[in-house]
Structure formats: structure tokens, C-alpha cells
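mind reviewing both lines:
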Amino acid sequence: MHDEQTAVAPASSRSQDAAFPNGFLWGVATSAYQIEGAVQADGRGASVWDTFAHTPGRVVGGDTGDVAADHYHRYPEDVALMSELGLGGYRFSVSWPRIQADGTGPANQRGLDFYKRLVDSLLERNIEPAVTLYHWDLPQALEDEGGWLNRDTAYRFAEYAAHVREGLGDRVRLWTTLNEPWCAAFLGYGEGKHAPGVQDTKGSLKAAHHLLLAHGLAVPALRSAAPGPIEIGTTLNFYPVSAASEDPADQDAAHRIDILQNRIFLDPVMQSRYPADILAHVEKVTGTDHIHDGDEAAIGAPIDFLGVNYYTSYHVAGGGESDGSASPWPGAEDVRFLHCGRPETGIGWEIDSDGLLTQLERINADYPGIKILITENGAAFDDTITPDGQVHDADRIAYIDAHLRATHEAIARGVDVRGYFLWSLLDNFEWAEGYAKRFGIVHVDFENQQRTLKDSARWYGAVALRNGLPADREA
């Protein structure tokens, strides 16, 4: 993220196939509820995910994050693994109910102390901490007051952000306000597939706005809460959207999905306003009374970098019919999502590394010069430990290799990408999928918490130490 990053020369002029700029940050990412466990330790309150996971039928296998990967107690071992691999950055989220059990009031010092210990452990091993303030674990007490459907939650979030900055401000430079507000708003309050499990299609657009407002209010709170250098961003999950044909119905379908997935979050953050077509869509679905004077200016508080999460792309068509079930697409329930015949990951997402290049170039074209961190990219596969005690995950290596080459190409074309955080360090609680899907480069045996480096971990560590990809593409 430093400004002295060196540009990458065109591929034809380099002896190494894919050398990255000097200072490029190679990291891994996790989130609190997915790995920490210790849900009742040291004054932590309940989150919406505690409630949701303990509700029968919500999570595959009835799994919960009560123990998860027990990172709360085992973080020294996990930090040591990152150091062993030669990684330079660790993106993790802070559990809001660890800091404020009910989402309000003074900070819980025992909760802050855990993150201080974690950050100190990282810094001792020259690993850059990157804090995400919100990765979906809203305090249940705030949800009982309406959660993100309640405008007041945005103000509570800004207060929480200041508490964490005051506690960690002398140790942490990189701060992200929200992770994937699309999921929190539209899966949490629209489709109800994620916590808190609310099915309110119209209300989900209000939740999206309140999440954006929370981001905007948190930015100045973070800057003013403590002295020291700081860089602030937000993390959005982007999906390039293509239309099935030139037919107006298909083009309109792609436009609406692009609004709801990508632009409804990025455009107001970068422009301090909702563009007219976004406002028109919101007005048609739910009205705009929830957007108050001054909100858009607040949402557009200047940021220092943009966090980009990327997993796959969308190919869509119009002409469908809503079946009346809850949908994460308010005002686009008729859109059909098509398969393109590409290979899929273990969670059923088509693999499209070219889509990452497309998305990075689009962001750079729309908002020239914005510094970018790829804050999540990775894949779930059906990993097993072989009789030799190893996990041979060649498919994951190929996935990462392809997406890193797309990243490298984007840099060569002038996109200012400063780092890459692989999702994820550890196998974890994969939200509504429970423990059925493994994204980690470190295998976790959830019976005994034993960690095993997968082949992908060693491969990625070698890439980080080399600061570049091998000349031969991984098959």
C-alpha cells in the first residue's frame, strides 16, 4: 500500500513470467465467527450468527461456530504457520460482540486485549495486520432493535469503530470498515439465507443503505479516534455481469443485477451520491424515504483504498418469472442466472479468472487511480488427507495461479493493485454451509483442531517469498 510500489514491465520484456511489484503485500484472510470459537469467553455477547446457527434447519448439518477452528486460543500456532510460509499480511475481522456485548456502551477491555495480543504476535513476525471491523457478526441485541433495518445501527457502528481504533490504533495501519455488505443486506434481510434470516425484499434495500451509511460514518470516526498513520477502505464483493444476448430484456437483466451486486455499493462510496439509475431502481422497489439529506455525502467520505473480493462472474438473461420465494435480488426476481459450462469449485461456483481481470480493469476505468487490495479470492474443494498425512489440492493451486496471473496482467495494464489476501488461511465455518466446504490452505481437523499444511499452502508461500509466479502456469 506504499506509494513507492514499482510498476510491472510488460510480460514480453521480463525474464520471469510474472514478477510482482516491489512491496506487493502477500497475505491470507479470515473472519471472526468463522474461526475464533470461544463464543462465551471474556465477556463476548451473542451475535446474530450465534442465534442463526443454533436455529434448527438454518445451517447444513446443524453446525455452529461455537468452537470453529478455536483460533481464539490457538492464534499463536496460526500466526507461526503464516510466518513459516513467508506471508506478509493477515486480514482478520474483529468480533463486534467481543468489543460491545450489546452493541453499545464502553469497550470490553478483555475483548480488545485479545486483538492486541493477536496484532502484537503478527508484528513480532513482520506480518502486517489488516483489520476488518464488520464481517457480519452483528450483536444480537442490536438485531432485536431492528438490526440493519434500523438506521440507528449505523451510528452504533461508528461508535464501535472508534473503540477498536482507540484500542489498536498504535498497532494497525490498514483498516476496512465492512466486508461484503451485499451479503449482509441481501442474504441476511432479503433471502434470509444468512443471519439474521429475515425475508424482507423491500427492507433489504434499506439495510444496504444503512450499511453504507455505517461505512461513511465510521471513516471519520476511525481517522479521529487515535493518532498514527492509517489507511481506510471498504471491501465489496464484485461479480462481472454479462448478458446472454443483445436482446433488450437480457441487457436490462444484466443492468439490474450489476446495479444490485456492484454499483449500489461502489458508486455512492466513490461519488458521494447514488447515480440516477440506481435511485430509480430503489424508488421503484421500496421508495427512497430512508435516504436522508446528508447521507450520500457521508457515505462518500474519502477512502484510501478499495478492497476487492472476487470469486466468480454472472451470466444472466431476462424473461424469467419470480416463483414468489424470498430473493436476494430486490426488483430483479425475474432474472435468470445461466451456466457457461466452465469448471466449478466444490461449492458450485464457475471458475472464471478472466472475470477478475475484467473487474479490476472496470474499476480502474470508472475510478482511475484508486488503490486496490484484493481482500479475498480463493476456492472450496473436497479436500481429504491422504494416507501419507498430506492434502494434495492441485485444483486449488491451479485456481489461485490463474487468478494471480489475472491480477498480474491487470497490474501490467495499469491497475494499481497493492496486495492479495488469499481466502482462506484455515478451513472454517462456512456460514450456512457449516463445515461441509473447505476454503483453507491449512486443513483443520475439527475433532482435534490439528492443522495440516496443504500443498497449496507451500505453493502460495513460495510465491510470496519469490514475489512472483513460476514461469510455467499451473495446470
User: Anything to note?
Assistant: The chain has one domain: 11-250+306-469. The chain has a mean pLDDT of 95.
